[in-house]
């Protein structure tokens, strides 16, 4: 059981250092809650959970048992003899531990205000002391913010919240080798907005109080931190200036100068910049650091270099099919042989290096030096690479079934032993990476245990018996699994899942009259229809890691003559009409309607977004993200957009009413749901994620959206990612947030925590099967879970 301790809020006076080229010891961040609602919100959630009238209902894990997810970091505690405890930090699935080299895994941090982990660190002097920094610093798509740092003094059995809640993302934690009470934290800060909470923090009393010892500005955070193994007062910090926009990945922008490397030799009291020989400040992106333990004079820096390498060819596309413009140098390795006084580029400028981080070097920034060989260097990117000549040349490491590498631990006593973490799971090698034991979908052998941290974006269901659920996972594509009720509604087994139509950024819908007809929307708006009753062609059968299924038919609508290209969100929405499953609605910046399963289309709306030319970038934005047609009235359709606009049509698209001015908050419309019981009732959830706003926004209208009232008052923290009606009881609503699932039995006037046994995880979507009365949630980090809600069908409102 994880215990949460309120953190005493203290402030320290600033010390102004007048020496030239030295940073001032800035006013330290208030180490308490910093206005973040999630830590106190989580405490309210715990109290609500204890008093919930539905606490005896039990959540059951559905799987997938054969798929893992993105891992952000790994550290190892050496125990008695040769035993070691491996601690694995999942990007959005908490902390996992094994003491038998992966034969079994135990979740040791799954109940907290945030279970997104940026870093884990085991105290070198005491393996029972473990620190984790919440908030994954990679800020990949779907990343969720943290709520500060946590500490365990009993090897992960219990945890205490140790403050820094406002830091939101943690890049690195460094613990003093002899004094476990001295800890340094590199905080990279908000993902989307400026933040005064960025920088490097230090505690000398085990986390009771903190001082911020390095601060550049509100746009620049600390992304990496390394301690000299020969001198614990010497540390190197990498800072990264970045801001993400809904319409663009984090890139270097004009005027940027905050990214660089800094050094202290007095435990953080003073710092100097050490960037001689590195690219100019305006070209420095994310930076990763590593020190050679065998020769601490030698440092390596992995720099996402924004200097232009060449112009892209006319037909060159990035990983998502978008046209390339200028091709930057990207992954570049620098070496210093004099503790950072000067740097020299050692990596070649060639196509191989250009592809190490592809178009998104800001996701990686990890480099490691063999602790026993200063010239053996590992570079993490889309694939892992190794150099044996001090970074002059690199060769790819073949791990099998892996990609987007974020973590690497090398045993300092035996550098043939390595542990790697990537978007597909974990790998352990005992021969310097020549062979691997993979803990992921790529290796479902019975002798290898999976770490079940699949990251689902959504969930859909069919009406088969037993019914199946579908979902799209980050990096591992779309999957479907059986919900088997044959052994009892309280004994649903977790099962292996098979591949399904669609990709990693997809949503699904299944024809309710024919479970063989599956629709899937791929990233940025591709749309396909698959018929499982069609025989599978011989060439598609028996391919390793792929489910045998028939080919899909592309049915995406096309813009008309003179119309701009369609903008489809990463997961572009579509629905089947509740009145006729042959009718399909699809959203881009426009709403389209097909009467014949997608074979032909009609555009039935104008551009329903803000359509601001200044907010059009390399990420599709100003798009429709949620669609709902009233089950009571055909042609009554609501749509919501990522730029906070909501429209309704009551005549099948002939006329539209803009409801945006009815809201107090202009934020991403995460869900709109037309009631199946009352024609004029509609529910709407908003997410402040892209404003770094984690309050709860949930609304209800009974007059077709003309007026709204908030029904979020008793939901302790947001964002609210999804809201659904119970299919049988008009008074029962369900809501999924970044902490868990809530239920209301009085139309939203009050809420209770639903059930027990669900990790406090990011619930991005949920469905209630209308026949079997099983609620299924898609979590971003802990796979899918189910709960029996049949008892709620007859609950009277209170």
Supply the CATH architecture of the domain at 68-439: 7 Propeller
Q: First CA to last CA: what distance?
A: 32 Å
- Any idea what the radius of gyration is? 26 Å
What would the CATH topology of the domain at 68-439 be? Methylamine Dehydrogenase, Chain H
The class by helix and strand makeup works out as mainly beta
Strand order of the largest sheet: 1-56-55-54
The poorly predicted ranges are 1-34, 442-447, 542-546
DSSP E strands, number: 56
Number of helices: 2
Main sheet summary: 4 strands, antiparallel
Question: For the residues shown, what is the average pLDDT?
Answer: 90
Overall body shape: globular
Helix percent band: under 10%
How would you describe the oligomerization state of the chains in this entry?
single chain
CATH homologous superfamily identity of the domain at 68-439: YVTN repeat-like/Quinoprotein amine dehydrogenase
As a percent range, the share of strand residues is: 25-35%
Just give the CATH class of the domain at 68-439: Mainly Beta
Detailed description of the structure:
The chain is mostly beta strands. The protein has a domain at 68-439: YVTN repeat-like/Quinoprotein amine dehydrogenase (Methylamine Dehydrogenase, Chain H), CATH 2.130.10. The strands form 14 sheets. It has a four-stranded antiparallel β-sheet, with no helix packed on it. The two termini are 32 Å apart.
Summarize the helices and strands and which ones pair or pack.
Elements: H1 38-51, E1 60-63, E2 71-78, E3 84-90, E4 94-98, E5 106-109, E6 117-122, E7 130-134, E8 149-152, E9 160-161, E10 170-175, E11 183-187, E12 199-203, E13 211-214, E14 220-227, E15 235-241, E16 260-264, E17 272-273, E18 284-291, E19 299-311, E20 326-336, E21 344-345, H2 351-356, E22 366-369, E23 377-380, E24 384-387, E25 395-396, E26 405-410, E27 418-422, E28 425-429, E29 437-439, E30 460-461, E31 468-473, E32 477-482, E33 498-499, E34 507-510, E35 517-521, E36 527-531, E37 552-554, E38 574-576, E39 584-587, E40 591-594, E41 602-603, E42 624-629, E43 637-641, E44 646-649, E45 657-658, E46 668-674, E47 682-687, E48 697-701, E49 709-710, E50 720-725, E51 733-737, E52 741-744, E53 752-753, E54 763-768, E55 774-779, E56 784-788
Antiparallel strand pairs: 1-56, 2-3, 3-4, 4-5, 6-7, 7-8, 8-9, 10-11, 11-12, 12-13, 14-15, 15-16, 16-17, 18-19, 19-20, 20-21, 22-23, 23-24, 24-25, 26-27, 27-28, 28-29, 30-31, 31-32, 32-33, 34-35, 35-36, 36-37, 38-39, 39-40, 40-41, 42-43, 43-44, 44-45, 46-47, 47-48, 48-49, 50-51, 51-52, 52-53, ...
């Amino acid at each position: 059981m994880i215990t949460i301790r309120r953190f005493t809020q203290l402030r320290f006076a600033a010390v102004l250092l007048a020496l030239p080229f030295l940073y001032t010891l800035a006013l330290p961040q208030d180490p308490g809650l910093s206005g973040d609602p999630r830590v106190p919100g989580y405490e309210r959630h715990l109290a609500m959970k204890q008093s919930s009238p539905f606490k005896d209902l039990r959540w059951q894990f559905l799987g997938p048992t054969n798929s893992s997810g993105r891992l952000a970091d790994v550290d190892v505690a050496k125990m008695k003899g040769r035993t070691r405890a491996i601690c694995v930090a999942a990007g959005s699935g908490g902390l996992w531990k094994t003491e038998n080299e992966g034969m079994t895994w135990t979740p040791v941090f799954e109940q907290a205000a945030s279970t997104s982990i940026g870093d884990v660190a085991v105290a070198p002097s005491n393996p029972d002391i473990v620190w984790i920094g919440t908030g994954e610093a990679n800020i990949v798509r779907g990343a969720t913010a943290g709520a500060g740092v946590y500490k365990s003094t009993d090897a992960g059995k219990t945890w205490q919240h140790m403050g820094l809640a406002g830091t939101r993302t943690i890049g690195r934690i460094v613990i003093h080798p002899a004094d476990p009470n001295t800890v340094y934290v590199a905080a990279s800060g908000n993902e989307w907005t400026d933040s005064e909470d960025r920088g490097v923090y230090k505690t000398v009393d085990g986390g009771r109080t903190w001082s911020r010892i390095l601060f550049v500005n509100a746009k620049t955070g600390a992304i990496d931190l390394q301690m000299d193994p020969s001198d614990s007062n010497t540390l190197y910090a990498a800072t990264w200036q970045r801001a993400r926009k809904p319409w663009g990945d984090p890139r270097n922008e004009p005027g940027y100068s905050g990214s660089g490397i800094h050094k202290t030799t007095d435990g953080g009291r003073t710092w100097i910049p050490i960037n001689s020989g590195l690219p100019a400040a305006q070209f420095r992106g994310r930076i990763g650091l590593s020190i050679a333990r065998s020769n601490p004079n030698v440092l390596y820096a992995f720099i996402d270099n924004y200097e232009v390498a060449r112009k892209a060819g006319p037909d060159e596309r990035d990983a998502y099919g978008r046209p390339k413009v200028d091709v930057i140098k990207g992954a570049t390795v620098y070496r210093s042989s004099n503790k950072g006084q000067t740097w020299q580029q050692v990596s070649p400028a060639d196509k191989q290096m250009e592809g190490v981080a592809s178009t998104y070097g800001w996701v990686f920034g990890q480099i490691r030096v063999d602790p026993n060989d200063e010239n053996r260097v590992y570079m993490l990117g889309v694939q892992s690479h190794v150099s044996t000549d001090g970074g002059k040349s690199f060769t790819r490491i073949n791990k099998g079934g892996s990609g987007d590498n974020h973590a690497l631990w090398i045993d300092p006593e035996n550098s043939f032993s390595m542990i790697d973490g990537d978007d597909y799971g974990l790998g352990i090698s005992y021969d310097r990476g020549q062979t691997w034991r993979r803990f992921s979908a790529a290796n479902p052998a019975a002798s290898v245990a999976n770490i079940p941290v699949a990251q689902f974006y959504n969930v859909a269901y069919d009406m088969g018996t037993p019914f199946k659920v579908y979902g799209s996972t980050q990096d591992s594509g779309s999957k479907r699994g059986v919900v088997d009720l044959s052994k009892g509604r309280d004994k649903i087994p977790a099962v292996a899942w098979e591949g399904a139509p669609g990709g990693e950024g997809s949503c699904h819908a299944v024809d309710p009259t024919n479970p063989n007809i599956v629709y899937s929307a791929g990233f940025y708006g591709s749309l396909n229809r698959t018929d499982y009753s069609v025989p599978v062609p011989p060439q598609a059968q028996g391919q390793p890691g792929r489910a045998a299924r028939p080919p899909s038919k592309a049915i995406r609508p096309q813009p008309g003559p003179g119309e701009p290209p369609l903008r489809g969100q990463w997961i572009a929405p579509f629905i089947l009409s509740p009145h006729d499953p042959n009718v399909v609605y699809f959203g881009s910046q426009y709403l389209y309607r097909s009467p014949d399963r997608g074979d032909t289309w009609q555009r039935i709306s104008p551009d329903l977004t803000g359509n601001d030319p200044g907010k059009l970038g390399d990420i599709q934005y100003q798009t429709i993200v949620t669609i709902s047609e009233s089950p009571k009235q055909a042609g009554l359709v609501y749509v919501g957009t990522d730029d906070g606009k909501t429209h309704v049509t009551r005549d099948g698209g002939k006329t539209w009413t803009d409801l945006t001015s009815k809201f107090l908050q202009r934020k991403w419309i995460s869900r709109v749901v037309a009631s199946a019981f009352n024609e004029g009732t509609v529910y709407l959830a908003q997410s402040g994620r892209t404003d770094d706003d984690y309050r709860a926004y949930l609304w209800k209208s009974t007059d077709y959206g003309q007026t709204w009232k908030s029904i979020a008052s008793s939901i302790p923290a947001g964002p609210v990612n999804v809201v659904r009606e119970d299919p049988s009881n008009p008074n029962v609503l369900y809501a999924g947030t970044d902490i868990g699932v809530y239920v209301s039995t009085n139309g939203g006037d009050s809420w209770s925590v639903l059930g027990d046994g669900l990790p406090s995880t990011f619930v991005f979507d949920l469905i209630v099967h209308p026949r079997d009365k099983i609620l299924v949630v898609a979590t971003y980090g802990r796979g899918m879970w189910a709960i029996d809600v049949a008892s709620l069908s007859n609950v009277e409102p209170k």
